[in-house]
C-alpha cells in the first residue's frame, strides 16, 4: 500500500485545488470571450436588418444596488430576461449578467440566476437578482406578500381624462381629479398575426378565448398633458397592486383607452374594443415605429424585508416610522427618469397636474 506523508498529502491537496481554480478561471474567461463576440455579432445583425435601432453594449451594465447577495439593475429596454437557448441567442440580461458578474451564476439553475422579479422585453427599469437561494427567498417573499411598492413611468397616446373612458363603470374609478383606479380581470390568449406568427398575449376575461383569468389592479396618476410629435399624449405614474403579465400595457390600452407610446402590440388589436374618442389609433400607429422604444419604465422600488430571524441577511436601512419589527427593514431604490425620446423636441408639455416627487411615498408599504 502506498502511504503519503501528511506534508506531501497537504501539498497534493493544495495542488489539486489550484488546478481546479485555474481551470474555472480559464473556462470562465473563454466563455466571456465567446459571449463578447456573439453578443456583438447578433446585435450588429439586428441593427443592419432593422430589427432594432439602438446599440446595447455588453459592458453597458447599470448597477443601482449591490450588497450582501442582492444586485439591482437598471435594465435596458428591448432586452430579453432570458432565452431557452442562451448560448445560441445570448442577447439577454441573463448573459449580460454572466459576462459582468460570473460569480453570481449558479449552474444548477435553468436560468443561471435567481431573478426575483421580471420585466417585459420592451420595459426598462429596476430588476432584482439574488446570488443565493436564501436571499432570493427573503426578497421573493416580499414580492409574493405584496410588501413591495412599485412605481412606473409611462407616456400614453391621448389626453387621459379629457374624454369618457371606455366602459368606465366596469373598469375605471375616478378617485380624485386625474387619479384613477383601473380594475380588470385579465387572462392569456393566443393571437395569430397576419404573417402567420402566433403569440401569447393578454386580454380581458370576457373575450372568447381568454384563459386562466385573474383579477388585476393599477392606480394611474396623470402627471402631465402634452404633445408627442404633434399628437396629444399624457405622462403617467402607474402604481400596480398586482403583478400580472403585460398588466400595465393592457390597463392603459383597454382600460383607460390610451395605449402606451411605442407599444407595437397593444396599440391596435382585433380583440381590443376599447376605443377612446381622444385617441385616433390609425394616426398614432406609424408614430410608434418612429419612437426608439416603448415608454414604460420601472423607476422606483420600495421593498419591506422580513427575514424571520433576529437580523436580515440583506443590507438596507431600518424603518423609523414605528411600524417595524426587529427583523424588518426597507430597501428603497430609484433610477433617474429616462429620456424616452431620441428627438429632444418630440415631447411638449401643455399642462402639469402633479409633480412626481409628491407621489414618491404613496401606496408604498
UniProtKB/TrEMBL annotation:
This is RNA pseudouridylate synthase domain-containing protein 1. Gene3D superfamilies: Pseudouridine synthase. Residues 70-253 form the Pseudouridine synthase RsuA/RluA-like domain. Belongs to the pseudouridine synthase RluA family. SUPFAM superfamilies: Pseudouridine synthase. GO terms for biological process: enzyme-directed rRNA pseudouridine synthesis. It comes from Paragonimus heterotremus. It holds the Pfam family PseudoU_synth_2. One of its GO terms (molecular function) is pseudouridine synthase activity. InterPro entries: PsdUridine_synth_cat_dom_sf, PsdUridine_synth_RsuA/RluA, RluA_PseudoU_synthase.
Amino acid at each position: 500500500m502506498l502511504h503519503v506523508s501528511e506534508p506531501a498529502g497537504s501539498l497534493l491537496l493544495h495542488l489539486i485545488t489550484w488546478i481546479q481554480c485555474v481551470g474555472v478561471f480559464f473556462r470562465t474567461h473563454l466563455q466571456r470571450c465567446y459571449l463578447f463576440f456573439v453578443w456583438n455579432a447578433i446585435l450588429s445583425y439586428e441593427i443592419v436588418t432593422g430589427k432594432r435601432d439602438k446599440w446595447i453594449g455588453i459592458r453597458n451594465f447599470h448597477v443601482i444596488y449591490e450588497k450582501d447577495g442582492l444586485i439591482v439593475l437598471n435594465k435596458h429596454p428591448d432586452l430579453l430576461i432570458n432565452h431557452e437557448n442562451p448560448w445560441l441567442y445570448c442577447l439577454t440580461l441573463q448573459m449580460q449578467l454572466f459576462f459582468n458578474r460570473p460569480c453570481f451564476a449558479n449552474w444548477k439553475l435553468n436560468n443561471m440566476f435567481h431573478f426575483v422579479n421580471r420585466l417585459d422585453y420592451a420595459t426598462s427599469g429596476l430588476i432584482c437578482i439574488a446570488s443565493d437561494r436564501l436571499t432570493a427567498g427573503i426578497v421573493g417573499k416580499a414580492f409574493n406578500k405584496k410588501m413591495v411598492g412599485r412605481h412606473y413611468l409611462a407616456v400614453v397616446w391621448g389626453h387621459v381624462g379629457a374624454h369618457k373612458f371606455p366602459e368606465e363603470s366596469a373598469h375605471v374609478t375616478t378617485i380624485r381629479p386625474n387619479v384613477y383606479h383601473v380594475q380588470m380581470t385579465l387572462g392569456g390568449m393566443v393571437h395569430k398575426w397576419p404573417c402567420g406568427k402566433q403569440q401569447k398575449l393578454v386580454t380581458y376575461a370576457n373575450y372568447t378565448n381568454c384563459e386562466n383569468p385573474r383579477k388585476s389592479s393599477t392606480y394611474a396618476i396623470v402627471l402631465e398633458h402634452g404633445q408627442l410629435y404633434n399628437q396629444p399624449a399624457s405622462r403617467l405614474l402607474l402604481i400596480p397592486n398586482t403583478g400580472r403579465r403585460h398588466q400595465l400595457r393592457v390597463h392603459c390600452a383597454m382600460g383607460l383607452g390610451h395605449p402606451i407610446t411605442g407599444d407595437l402590440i397593444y396599440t391596435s388589436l382585433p380583440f381590443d374594443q376599447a376605443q377612446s374618442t381622444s385617441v385616433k389609433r390609425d394616426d398614432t400607429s406609424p408614430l410608434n415605429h418612429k419612437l426608439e422604444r416603448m415608454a414604460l419604465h420601472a423607476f422606483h422600488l420600495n421593498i419591506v424585508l422580513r427575514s424571520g430571524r433576529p437580523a436580515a441577511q440583506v443590507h438596507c436601512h431600518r424603518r423609523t416610522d414605528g411600524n417595524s419589527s426587529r427583523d424588518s427593514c426597507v430597501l428603497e431604490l430609484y433610477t433617474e427618469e429616462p429620456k424616452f425620446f431620441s428627438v429632444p423636441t418630440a415631447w411638449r408639455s401643455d399642462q402639469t397636474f402633479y409633480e412626481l416627487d409628491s407621489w414618491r411615498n404613496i401606496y408604498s408599504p
